[in-house]
Write a sequence for this structure.
């Protein structure tokens, strides 16, 4: 199976170039004089990553008696709430849960408190469908000022209130805020010929305090980095706080990239996933995890792994069953169907595994910050690995001569990226680059289709694992 690419269908004419990865940082801005605080619309695309923790997407907070937020709860429910003047002014919590870390989803919250019918004062849409089932459904009083657009205190994206730690929310793209109008989901998206909800460029007006955030690295902005640049024409720019250059990504609703899938971390209590599902650190005990996308028969895929802390065994490879087929922990290379390479911390030996069979090599352990390149050939059943650009066994991934050390998997079947870490006194940590690195790189090599940003050259015929490449080569 190839994993969901919701919002990633290639037939849409409107392409979204960038998203912003909210892992450790956030954006903020102080509101000026608004067109309205009774009518407003928020539209954005979200790729969820932090599961099991309340995470504020958009918020304004003065104190416990005056606040507004939109978030995803620890249980995965979409929520919006305002307490104004000490009164719980509205609370909407959907029954729908948003827990899929592999898919982009479109969310619209449209407010108009001038409406005579209470149910028309807040409309919530997910992927173009209006939500009608709520565990909590408390609408605002007629003509209530909603507080988000009030000219006091900072408004935040990816943060809640001063003094908190930014917990991360994943990836946001194409964020529109309309000041003074209650819009429909169809103003921002449409159903394509395959029945998939895809982005559409918003063509309406924004109002005085409205903004459009494309999350590009450069732009005309009071914000020097451009990450929070408003390109609506209003120049309502946001400042960024602790946002890295690498937080600007090309993982978007129109080209969805592979990440790690925290729902497949086994045992669930072990291992720590951070950096919006791009960093994996051992904790508690040994653990394993899978990627969000499968590699179809015949496709060749390239990615890189940075050994941030190479202090114990860590398996880097594939499994022929997703989540091991049974949802159990799988030590890298340890069972039939696994093919992998395993740097072994301080041991003066590394290992590779073919169908669960162990083979030792005399290669010494690799230093911290070594980059392992992985070229999975699912046309010929081989995996070529390089260490800082030098391929093991001097193998050539373009013609398999010499052949790879890891070989023999069934190229007629879909294969699944599989990784594991062992615990030790100093915990091992890896950062994964499926095309959007969280670490700085110097070369920025793309595949032949222009996708991805890698430290080392992508071998001819190999591609980044994303929805556009899957559509063409999968």
């Amino acid at each position: 199976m190839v994993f969901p690419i919701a919002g990633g269908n290639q037939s849409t004419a409107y392409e979204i170039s960038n998203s912003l990865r909210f892992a450790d940082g956030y954006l903020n801005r102080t509101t000026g004089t608004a067109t309205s605080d009774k009518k407003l619309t928020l539209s954005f695309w979200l790729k969820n990553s932090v599961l099991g923790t309340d995470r504020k997407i958009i918020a304004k907070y003065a104190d416990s008696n005056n606040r507004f937020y939109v978030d995803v709860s620890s249980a995965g429910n979409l929520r919006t709430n305002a307490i104004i003047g000490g009164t719980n002014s509205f609370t909407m919590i959907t029954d729908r849960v948003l827990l899929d870390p592999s898919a982009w989803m479109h969310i619209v919250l449209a407010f108009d408190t001038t409406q005579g019918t209470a149910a028309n004062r807040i409309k919530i849409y997910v992927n173009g469908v209006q939500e009608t089932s709520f565990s909590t459904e408390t609408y605002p009083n007629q003509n209530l000022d909603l507080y988000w657009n009030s000219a006091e205190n900072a408004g935040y994206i990816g943060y809640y209130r001063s003094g908190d730690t930014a917990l991360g929310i994943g990836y946001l793209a194409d964020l529109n805020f309309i000041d003074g109008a209650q819009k429909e989901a169809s103003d921002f998206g449409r159903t394509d010929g395959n029945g998939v909800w895809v982005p559409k460029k918003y063509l309406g007006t924004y109002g005085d305090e409205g903004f459009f955030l494309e999350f590009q690295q450069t732009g005309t902005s009071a914000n020097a980095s451009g990450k929070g640049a408003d390109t609506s024409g209003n120049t309502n720019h946001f400042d960024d706080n602790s946002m890295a250059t690498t937080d600007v990504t090309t993982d978007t609703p129109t080209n969805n990239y592979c990440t790690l899938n925290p729902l497949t971390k086994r045992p669930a209590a072990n291992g720590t996933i951070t950096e919006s599902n791009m960093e994996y650190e051992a904790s508690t005990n040994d653990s394993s995890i899978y990627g969000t996308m499968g590699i179809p028969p015949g496709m060749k895929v390239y990615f890189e792994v940075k050994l941030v802390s190479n202090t114990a065994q860590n398996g880097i490879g594939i499994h022929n069953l997703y989540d091991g087929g049974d949802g159990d922990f799988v030590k890298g290379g340890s069972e039939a169907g696994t093919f992998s390479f395993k740097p072994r911390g301080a041991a003066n030996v590394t290992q590779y595994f073919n169908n669960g069979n162990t083979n030792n090599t005399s290669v010494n352990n690799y230093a911290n910050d070594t980059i392992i390149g992985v070229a999975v050939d699912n046309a010929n059943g081989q995996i070529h690995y390089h260490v800082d650009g030098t391929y093991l066994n001097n193998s050539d991934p373009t013609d398999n001569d010499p052949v790879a050390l890891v070989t023999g998997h069934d190229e007629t079947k879909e294969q699944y990226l599989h990784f594991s870490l062992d615990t030790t006194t100093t915990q091992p940590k890896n950062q994964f680059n499926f095309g959007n690195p969280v670490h700085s790189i110097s070369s920025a090599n793309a595949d032949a289709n222009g996708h991805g940003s890698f430290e080392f050259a992508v071998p001819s015929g190999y591609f980044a694992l994303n929805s556009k490449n899957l559509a063409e080569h999968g």
